[in-house]
Amino acid sequence: VKVKIPFGNKYLDAIFSVPEKKSTYGVILTHGAGGDMNFPHLVSLAACLASHGVLCLRFTCKGLNIAYRTKAFKTVVEYLKLSDDYKLSGVFLAGRSMGSRAAASVIRQLSQDDDDDFIQGLVCLSYPLHRPKLQSKLRDEDLLFIRCPVLFVSGSADEMCEKQLLEGVASKMKAPKKIHWIDKANHGLAVKGRTTDDVMEEINSQVFAWFRENIELEHK
């Protein structure tokens, strides 16, 4: 289902992947610095989650300014929260690369605004922890503030997320967290000798298993 989400005096293009049965939980997905919501990994993940009963909302927000992207993401969260069509108990935020930074930033902001249980967790695909070859300056400040569960899916050869550095940041995080390393994958999660579909299947099964764990924990 295509929708246009009001954002200031503009609109954000978005697409709902709606499961057959009414969904209690949803996930909002967004893309990295390049591309849009039709990035293959996001389309594949949305289809996989919707087929397992999780409502997915993907949206496009062009613009390389992280504050702008964060504001857009926050608008989408509010939109879904107030939606009459899909009454959800909670939502997970997910993003690829820069999109995951924006998602982390939104969660930090919303947790400072109010004690809201609407956001259930964060999924970071290829979190850009640092610029290529610039490991001294880490983009970890939002991650250290977050309290909800976080899943990182990153390539072990990601030039923007040195393995030991992410593990170091994770060890300082207060949130329950899990890292799934995709062996030999780069920042685009491509692996020499493996098809895109094969890698996407690995990502999707990891993300769905993590979702299920966290939704079940909520209900216990």
From TrEMBL:
Domain named KANL3/Tex30 alpha/beta hydrolase-like: residues: 27-210
Signal peptide (UniProt feature, chain positions): none
Highest taxon, organism lineage: Eukaryota
InterPro entries hit by this protein: AB_hydrolase_fold (IPR029058), KANL3/Tex30_Abhydrolase (IPR046879), NSL3/Tex30 (IPR026555)
SUPFAM superfamilies listed in its UniProt record: alpha/beta-Hydrolases (SSF53474)
A Pfam family of this chain: Abhydrolase_11
Protein name from the UniProt record: TEX30 protein
